[in-house]
Amino acid sequence: MARKQSDYLAALLADESAEIDTGVPPAPSAPERTRGTTLLNRETALARVTSGEVRQVTQLLLDPARVRIWPGNARSYQHLTEEGCRELIDSIIAEGGQKVPAVVRRVNGDPAHDFEVIAGTRRHWSISWLRAHSYPEMQFVAQVANLDDEAAFRLADLENRARKDVSDLERARNYAEALKAHYGNHLTRMAERLKVSKGWLSKMVKVAQIPDAVITAFASPADVQLKPAYTLAQALDDKVAAKAIQSTARDLAREQAERRNRGATPYPAADVLRRLLEASNDPSEAAPPFTWTTPHGRLGLSIQSSNRQGVTIRLHAGSGAGNDELLDALRQALVHLEAEGRGLQR
């Protein structure tokens, strides 16, 4: 595990000329003690020290109360629990302390904190929990890195990819925020920097757009998985379908709360998704489709669908309508869509 952590930071440094901060800050508010172990192997570390890319890598023993969580990390700190961290807590107790260091960076202008966690949120939570539950001597072990926000995001992302307990929704929303904050909404640039597929990244960003009002239909945000959630996100592009989905989501959220209060098992994610998608296809929830018939009562034109990707209109064979009549019918169809708020986005 420690080697994997080392590989993460080493890979980052190989791709980004990030410097590793060394000295202990002057007059710290909480006790710290430098440990002389290095993250990189000796030959690599010496080579990078010589080149000036890396000055030194040290580990510190910190009071977790003086360390805040960097908001750019995908993991939701408030959702961490004793049950979810139990294996890590037991491991720390058995080994007499935290063996795998977290990665932190210094903060300025915050009188309550000296550092913030870039990678190692669960370790921070677990050490904090242990200090409050009979292990007050436990220290938060961290290595200090001097990274800008984009480099910190990539390092945190590398670690989170190896964590099964970071949900697809957490990562999707983290990517969507990073896309704006670090990459100027350039999806290709972000995909290249993260070394991931642009198509896969596009789906993650799409899933991030699912509103909280729909997410509450699931027993847990962790139930929202990429592949089925992408289908749901696409269905929400249609404004009429979105209203039906949100209405069903409110019903499901209410039912889920009632089941929890009774001690019953919540609806599984597959059932929730099925009901939401069925709502989007329910004719009773949708506005009547636009159709145009000729004076002889034959169907000549109809709207098949309307969403962000465009409008699908069918011209029916055998209607007997001329070109001028069909053009007039098309104008009527577009006016109908505009009146419903589903017109083409210009």
Task: Please explain how this structure is put together.
- This protein has 13 helices and 9 strands.
- It starts with a helix and ends in a 6-residue tail after the last helix.
- The strands form 2 sheets. It has a 6-stranded mixed sheet with strand order 1-2-6-4-5-3.
- The chain has 346 residues and is an alpha+beta fold.
The count of helical stretches stands at: 13
Strand order of the largest sheet: 1-2-6-4-5-3
Quick check: average pLDDT? 81
Point out poorly predicted stretches: 1-6, 12-56, 283-287
| Content-based structural category | alpha+beta
Secondary structure: helix percent: 40-55%
Report the order of strands and helices.
HEHEEHEEHEHHHHHHHHEEEH
Overall number of strands: 9
The general outline is: elongated
Cα end-to-end separation: 52 Å
Largest sheet: 6 strands, mixed
CA gyration radius, whole angstroms: 27 Å
State which percent range the strand residues make up.
5-15%
